[in-house]
Structures are given as structure tokens and as C-alpha cells.
């Protein structure tokens, strides 16, 4: 049985905030620099089209994360984490090929080839999911910070370098960069996690039900959060999609950098058992205080 370290809210929040700062702010900065070199149409394809494709595939893991990171789930049930690979692998093939078929795109074209690369990158990232779940159950926030920071820096540097070197093949520059990001994430988690969950699965109907419920919630959340992007791609011109991508990334920066860490830290920490009621009460008091600060900053940002 794994030895679980008790999560500390302050430490967890600090690491998660640092993770968000590097994984969200750096790509936004790089995208801003890259946008100056590209037309709105060229910028919109990777930041909206490919982002939507990757998000749809990676939504596969959300149900497993939400269910298997709960303290009530037994270690023997963590083998269900491996199910994300066949499900994610299926979607990584079907979704890109579905887009290629529906739009009558050749895989010899840069756009069609980039779709396949993004599908492969999403699957590679999903391959690290069992290791990620094991690490987060151990409250390895520092590992997540290192993995996402390293991978994001590599992706951002390669994106800028490739776009600067050759502006005639922008979509492949983003595709290569995303593939490097996925490989980096997978390698770091696999190498840093001493033991992956066993592939054998204990029959646990409650855990399976949780995975199903959280997966449905993740799909519904995807529809609500990204549905407008899909609608925009269907009806808007390519240059309008590019302008939307730049404006949307700027407008949502505050929510991703400040408010999202609260959600992640609260879920990871308060679904884990604590050793005493007094400690639980103290952590809740700290969380409530930080949440009030976030609401104040959020209200200020909206009003401005």
C-alpha cells in the first residue's frame, strides 16, 4: 500500500498557483509574440482549432482523476486508471480522422498532418495519467510544478523558434511543439513516479460509478466551456476565429491564473482524509480566507 503524505493547503495552493503561472502565462506571452508574425487566420488554427481537438481528447482523463484521487478509493482500485489508455487511444484516432474526413482534408497537407500529430500528442500525454494519479495521491505538487514548467518552457521555446525560422508552415510548428510537450510530460511523470498503479483491477462498483458520473460531468463542462469555440469554427471566417483566440486567451487569463488553483487545491486537499477535526477546521478557515481574497480580486478585475 502506498504511503500517503498529508496535503497542506498553503503549500499545495502555492505550488498550484506557481504551476498555473508558468503553464498559462508563459504560453500566452509566447502566443502574443507569435501573433505579431502571423495573420489572424494562421494564429486561429493552432490556438482554437487544435486546442479544441486536444481538449476534447484529454477530457477523457477528468473522470478518472476526480474519482481515483478521492481518499475513499482503495489502492487496489487504482488499476482503473489504466482504462484511460484504450479510451483515450480510441478518441485520439477517431476525432482527428473524423475532422479530416468531414472537411475532406488530405493528410499530406500540413493541416491534416498537424491534426494527426495533435491526436498523437494527446494520447502520449494520457499515457502518463496512471502515474499522475499516483503522484497526486501522494500530494506531489512539486513534481507537477516541475513537469508542467519544464514541458511548457520546452514547448514555448520550440514554438517561437520554429515560427521565427519558417512562417510558411505555422501549423506544423505548433504540432511539433505540442508533441514535445506531451513527450516531456510523460517522461517526467513515468520516471519520477516510483510505482505505477497495478494493472489488475479490484471489482469496485462504487469507483466505476464515480468514474462514470465524473466523466459525464467533464463532458458537460466541455460543452459549456468550449461549445462557443466549436460554434465559431463552424460559422465564422478564419480570421475572425484568430482574433477570438487572442482576445479569449487574454480575457480568461485572470480566471486561469488566480481562480483555477482554488478549485484544484480544494479538490485535492478536501477529498483527502485529515488526521484531526481541528486540522480540518484550520484548513477550511485558510481556504475560506483565500477564497474571499480571490473573489475580491475577481470582482475588481471584472469591474475594471
TrEMBL record:
Signal peptide start-end: none
Keywords (A to Z) from UniProt: Endoplasmic reticulum, Membrane, Transmembrane, Transmembrane helix
Which InterPro entries does the record match to this protein? RFT1
GO BP, one annotated term: glycolipid translocation
Q: How does it sit in the membrane?
A: Multi-pass membrane protein
Location in the cell: Endoplasmic reticulum membrane
The biological pathway it contributes to is: Protein modification; protein glycosylation
Sorted alphabetically, the Gene Ontology cellular component annotations on this record are: endoplasmic reticulum membrane
According to the record, the segments passing through the membrane are: 12-31, 80-101, 113-133, 169-192
The record's annotation in PANTHER family points to: ENDOPLASMIC RETICULUM MULTISPAN TRANSMEMBRANE PROTEIN-RELATED (PTHR13117), PROTEIN RFT1 HOMOLOG (PTHR13117:SF5)
Function field: Intramembrane glycolipid transporter that operates in the biosynthetic pathway of dolichol-linked oligosaccharides, the glycan precursors employed in protein asparagine (N)-glycosylation. The sequential addition of sugars to dolichol pyrophosphate produces dolichol-linked oligosaccharides containing fourteen sugars, including two GlcNAcs, nine mannoses and three glucoses. Once assembled, the oligosaccharide is transferred from the lipid to nascent proteins by oligosaccharyltransferases.
Family membership noted in the UniProt record = Belongs to the RFT1 family.
Protein name (Swiss-Prot/TrEMBL):
Protein RFT1 homolog
Instruction: Please name the taxonomic classification of the source.
Output: Eukaryota, Viridiplantae, Chlorophyta, Mamiellophyceae, Mamiellales
Amino acid at each position: 500500500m502506498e504511503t500517503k503524505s498529508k496535503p497542506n493547503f498553503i503549500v499545495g495552493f502555492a505550488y498550484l498557483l506557481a504551476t498555473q503561472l508558468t503553464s498559462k502565462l508563459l504560453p500566452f506571452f509566447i502566443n502574443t509574440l507569435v501573433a505579431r508574425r502571423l495573420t489572424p487566420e494562421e494564429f486561429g488554427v493552432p490556438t482554437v482549432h487544435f486546442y479544441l481537438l486536444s481538449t476534447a481528447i484529454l477530457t477523457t482523463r477528468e473522470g478518472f482523476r476526480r474519482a481515483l484521487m478521492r481518499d475513499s478509493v482503495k489502492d487496489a482500485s487504482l488499476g482503473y486508471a489504466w482504462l484511460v489508455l484504450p479510451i483515450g487511444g480510441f478518441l485520439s484516432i477517431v476525432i482527428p480522422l473524423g475532422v479530416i474526413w468531414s472537411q475532406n482534408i488530405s493528410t499530406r497537407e500540413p493541416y491534416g498532418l498537424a491534426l494527426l500529430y495533435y491526436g498523437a500528442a494527446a494520447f502520449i500525454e494520457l499515457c502518463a495519467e496512471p502515474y499522475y494519479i499516483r503522484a497526486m495521491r501522494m500530494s506531489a505538487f512539486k513534481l507537477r510544478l516541475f513537469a508542467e514548467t519544464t514541458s511548457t518552457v520546452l514547448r514555448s521555446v520550440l514554438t517561437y523558434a520554429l515560427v521565427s525560422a519558417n512562417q510558411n508552415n505555422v501549423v506544423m510548428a505548433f504540432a511539433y511543439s505540442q508533441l514535445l510537450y506531451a513527450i516531456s510530460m510523460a517522461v517526467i511523470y513515468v520516471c519520477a513516479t516510483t510505482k505505477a498503479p497495478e494493472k489488475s483491477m479490484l471489482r469496485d462498483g462504487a469507483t466505476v460509478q464515480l468514474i462514470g458520473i465524473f466523466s459525464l460531468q467533464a463532458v458537460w463542462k466541455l460543452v459549456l466551456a468550449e461549445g462557443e469555440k466549436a460554434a465559431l469554427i463552424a460559422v465564422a471566417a478564419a480570421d475572425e476565429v484568430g482574433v477570438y483566440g487572442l482576445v479569449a486567451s487574454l480575457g480568461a487569463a485572470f480566471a486561469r491564473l488566480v481562480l483555477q488553483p482554488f478549485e484544484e487545491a480544494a479538490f485535492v486537499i478536501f477529498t483527502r482524509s485529515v488526521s484531526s477535526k481541528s486540522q480540518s477546521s484550520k484548513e477550511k478557515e485558510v481556504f475560506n480566507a483565500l477564497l474571499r481574497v480571490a473573489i475580491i480580486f475577481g470582482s475588481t478585475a471584472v469591474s475594471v
